[in-house]
Amino acid sequence: MATTQHYIWAGGHFVLLVSSLRYIIAWITFKGASLWWYKASYIGALISYLIVCHKSLGTLQPNAAWFKRAIADENIQYLILAFFWVTSRPVALSLLPYAIFSLFHALTFTRTTLMPQFLPPGPPATAGGAPTPHPVAKKLQLWVKSNYDPAMKVVAYTEVFILARVIVGALLFRNSFFTPIIYAHFIRMRYFQSAFTREAIIKVTAKIDGYANRPDLPPS
Prior knowledge:
Elements: H1 4-28, H2 35-57, H3 64-71, H4 74-86, H5 95-118, E1 122-124, E2 131-132, H6 135-171, H7 178-193, H8 195-212
Antiparallel strand pairs: 1-2
């Protein structure tokens, strides 16, 4: 049985997903998205990540051991980053990783919590066994499972691209000079914790090196 806290957590992800899609689509189509959607996206993120962080870490403890454990938690990292984004000049692309995470959380919540309330389960696979999920829920589960790793790769490459975006943005005075410094530290932590991020950085670096070392380019 899902708790009220679980519904609030899922609600934050649904708010994040819908608001970020609204903002990103308007940004892509040059329609001048309202800042309200950007703020709503990150408010949804803060709600969901606060709940999951409190669940995994418990109440704040004023000691070094708790802070060490907290700073190594990827949910804390994304929580802090969400707070930074919502209080900084908007960077539309920064919403994409959060939107992708929320898509998978929202789909899983829909399959495990909402669908059983409206869709009858299938017959047991064996006599006396537990009922099987509804075919729609089963297809959704298979889709999530087969697309999770490719989606995480998209997240990793997007985060590397965001770093390039905020570096250029700082040079063009489109965002703070602190933004690339803070985001580079975030990417550094992701590099050590995420195989997807390591792969993205290694491949992007190899592409840049390969282009810079092309024999047809004049020597510097």
